[in-house]
Amino acid sequence: MDLSIVVNGITFPNPFLLGSGPPGTNARVIAKSYDAGWGGAVAKTVSLESAKVVNVVPRYGKLRSKTSGEVIGFENIELISDRPIDVWLEEFRQIKKEYPKHILIASIMEEYEKSRWQELTRMVQDTGVDAFELNFSCPHGMTERKMGSEMGEHPDLCEQVTSWVTEVSNIPVWAKMTPNITNIKEPSLAAVRGGAVGISAINTILSVIGVDLNTLRPMPTVEGHTVPGGYSSQAVRPIALRMVSQLALGLPQDVSISGIGGIENSHDALEFMLLGASTVQLCTGVMLHGVKMVDELKEGFEKFMTDKGFNSVQEIVGKSLGYFSTHMDLVQKMKAAKRTKAGEASRDNEWGQKDITEKTAELTSN
Ligand SMILES: Cc1cc2nc3c(=O)[nH]c(=O)nc-3n(C[C@H](O)[C@H](O)[C@H](O)COP(=O)(O)O)c2cc1C
């Protein structure tokens, strides 16, 4: 079945992309993912001076289900790529030469200086990559150099930096946004004013994964100390879904959305597409389960499309957005359906008559 989709004029063989991070850490792993069947990859974020990027160990922490042990949340304090830009430029060229039909998106980040952003944009663009993703969203480490989410938290900076890039770029520019902000629409709209044609959401949520009760040290612990890091994996998915739907409902129609956050299978990916994403990106899921997970993504999409009668991936995009409303309207709709009694039955006097866990279950939809 044809799973291709055209986004900002680029034909993606399928909507499944590696998210920027360890899954796109060099040409070798990106090539392996293309061979496995991924439609594209956003490479690990690059900058002009890799010498300034020094990673720590350990830099990951997991939150596990208390019953099954399954990883449901993941924190990292990893920085952007620590590989020299010249090596990356050579690898971007090589990847595009060997895989011309697979989509390669370069994630870029720089300090707040026009000449630096424009130099990086020109260099990377010359290699033949298909699009840019501007990293306005890494919430740790890089922020100490006023990069990443330091920009994404300020709409004026998003607009200005995006316009520096779009002034010299002739390929589509996406901006990757931070969820560590009150209203993700504001910096996203600012990036669009600066010339971005796509928004990627979300990057990680600022977090502390836990505290070791033996040592009293918060984790991940590096020589006895830590910094708050970025939270990803399944636990962030509902937040990412909400933000993607807000963007889909609030951005101009022609701005594409790449949905990211806790996607681990076709079910999760479909949810993002139904709420307005036209591509999806997976990072932690691939780190935990490997690139082969794309097989299930494809199979799941094919089955869903056959079962529901969708003829193309494009038809799925935004299909569920029309079902958001206001709370007042939900009450009106319940009244019209003569079910208000069920709502009223959960008022104060009902609480306490039943066990709270039973009452919670009664009011839950899934
Ligand atoms: C270890 C790790 C490193 C990451 N590095 C980057 C990066 O260099 N650039 C970037 O834009 N996002 C980076 N991210 C964020 C992911 O691309 C993604 O936005 C986030 O993790 C949520 O998606 P997920 O739940 O599928 O991982 C990183 C995430 C992790 C877990």
Quick structural summary:
By secondary structure, this protein is α/β, with parallel strands linked by helices.
Can you give keywords for this protein?
binds flavin mononucleotide, 36% helix, four-stranded antiparallel beta sheet, 366 residues, 17% strand, 14 helices, alpha/beta, globular
Write the layout of secondary structure elements.
Layout: E1 5-7, E2 10-12, E3 16-18, H1 27-36, E4 40-42, E5 60-64, E6 71-76, H2 85-98, E7 103-108, H3 114-125, E8 131-135, H4 149-152, H5 155-168, E9 173-176, H6 185-193, E10 198-201, E11 205-207, E12 210-211, E13 218-219, E14 229-232, H7 237-250, E15 256-260, H8 266-274, E16 279-282, H9 284-289, H10 294-308, H11 313-316, H12 327-336, H13 340-344, H14 356-362
Parallel strand pairs: 3-4, 3-16, 4-7, 7-8, 8-9, 9-10, 10-15, 15-16
Antiparallel strand pairs: 1-2, 5-6, 6-14, 11-14, 12-13
Helix pairs in contact: 3-5, 5-6, 8-10
Bound molecules: flavin mononucleotide (FMN).
Question: Can you characterise this structure?
Answer:
- By secondary structure, this protein is of the alpha/beta class.
- The protein is built from 14 helices and 16 strands.
- It has an eight-stranded parallel beta barrel with strand order 3-4-7-8-9-10-15-16, surrounded by seven helices. Strands 5-6-14-11 form a four-stranded antiparallel sheet, with no helix packed on it.
- Helix 3 (114-125) packs across helix 5, helix 5 runs parallel beside helix 6 and helix 8 crosses helix 10.
- It starts with a strand and ends with a helix.
- The structure holds flavin mononucleotide.
- Flavin mononucleotide is lined by residues 19-22, 44-45, 74, 76, 78, 80, 107, 135, 138, 176, 203-204, 232-233, 236, 260-263, 282-285.
